[in-house]
Amino acid sequence: MEPGNLRREIICGVDEAGRGPLAGPVVAAAVVFDSKIKITGLADSKLLTPAQRYRVFSEIIDKAAGYGIAGVSHSIIDKINILQASLLAMRKAVEKLRIRPEKIYVDGKFTIPGIDIKQEAIVDGDKLIIQVSAASILAKVARDAYMTELANIYPAYDFERHKGYGTKEHIEILYKIGPCPIHRRSFKPISQMTIWGNR
Asked: Could you identify which of 18, 44, 51, 98 might form a hypothetical disulfide with 26, taking C-beta atoms 3.0 to 4.6 angstroms apart as the criterion?
């Protein structure tokens, strides 16, 4: 067989967004596409502006052979911890793929439990492997969009601005009016607030 006719391995990249915030879900994405596909500006989502992320998001969706996006709620995070919730979201994202990958690269130190596909965990994988970079962008854009929707339900918390992360502004709001139903009760400083007894 000629080298040019060798079949390429079907690679999937997986990453999450939202491990650190004080509110809202953790969201993961799984993306499958050929390594030869060119997507301008593909990089770790944290290195891109929101406008750049939205543009690249659309191009990834258009060019990917398959993708899945899944979230795990704040209440589940509180029950099983953020690491297990992140891995659960990743597994759900992989299970949504319409194409079965032959290998999965996972950003971080841990592989995904409960998946019978060859995996490799890579620290800073979102900077090293384009499929993981793509997954980081899908997860980030999807989560940001969801938090912006939640801002309409809980307008006092400015979720559209900080997306639930523990910014100075967010912390000040928490101490002023207390947490709302989508805050993570197991995260400090929320876990130290006695107001949960009334909610």
From this structure: 18
